[in-house]
Amino acid sequence: MDAAILEFACRWLPYGGPPPDEIWIGFGMTTPGFDRRLSRILEGVAARDVPAEVRARLRTQLSERARRWTIRSRSTLSS
Prior knowledge:
With 79 residues, the protein is mainly α.
């Protein structure tokens, strides 16, 4: 499944990453769960054939999405 997740993330990279419903339909996981799994994949052997520039862009996208989730969570908690 790691290869499928990596391919899926690369396919959605130009669009800012996959939407939550596509992640759920494709893999049965939440966006944060998908992001954690993708992060582990990027650190492992499965990603070695992905160009370094693409891996870096995926990591940047993961960081930005994590920051948005954190801001959204804090906003919800303070409401």
